[in-house]
Design a protein that fits this description.
Blueprint lengths: L5 E8 L3 H11 L3 E9 L2 E7 L6 E5 L9 E5 L2 H10 L17 E5 L5 E6 L9
Parallel strand pairs: 1-4, 5-7
Antiparallel strand pairs: 1-5, 2-3, 3-4, 6-7
């Protein structure tokens, strides 16, 4: 059984979100999927090619939002336990908030951030 169900989004680090938006939207032709302030100073800006199920989050390092590949999982708590049992070291316990589904991050063997987000049937903020 796989811990992950799908790739939900990939984030890239940008220094200026408005400048990045102009490129991805106006030059590449992506559509804006989300543009919200998650908390003060943390803007979740997600674009995608029309019809593409995988979003591209344009995030600043200063926002504190994790930059990496986001995967859906059926059970964040179960995935956290399974990864820990397999010797991986999640960066924190599963985060439960009012604005997003349960999630946590873990590093792959090369230092890349993997974000696991519990699939919730489309309710709540994706991210």
């Amino acid at each position: 059984m796989s811990i992950v169900t799908r790739v939900t989004s990939v984030s890239v680090e940008v220094t200026d979100q408005d400048e990045a938006l102009a490129f991805y939207r106006d030059v590449l032709g992506c559509e804006v999927r989300a543009d919200v302030e998650v908390w003060p100073g943390a803007r979740w800006l997600e674009v995608a090619p029309p019809g593409c199920p995988i979003g591209i989050a344009l995030l600043t390092k200063a926002s504190g939002l994790p930059i990496g590949v986001r995967y859906g999982t059926g059970d964040a708590e179960g995935a956290h336990r399974a990864l820990t049992a397999a010797g991986a070291a999640p960066h924190q316990d599963v985060l439960h908030t009012d604005y997003a589904p349960p999630m946590f991050t873990v590093g792959d063997p090369h230092g890349n951030t993997v974000v696991l987000i519990e699939e919730d049937g489309g309710a709540g903020v994706r991210g």
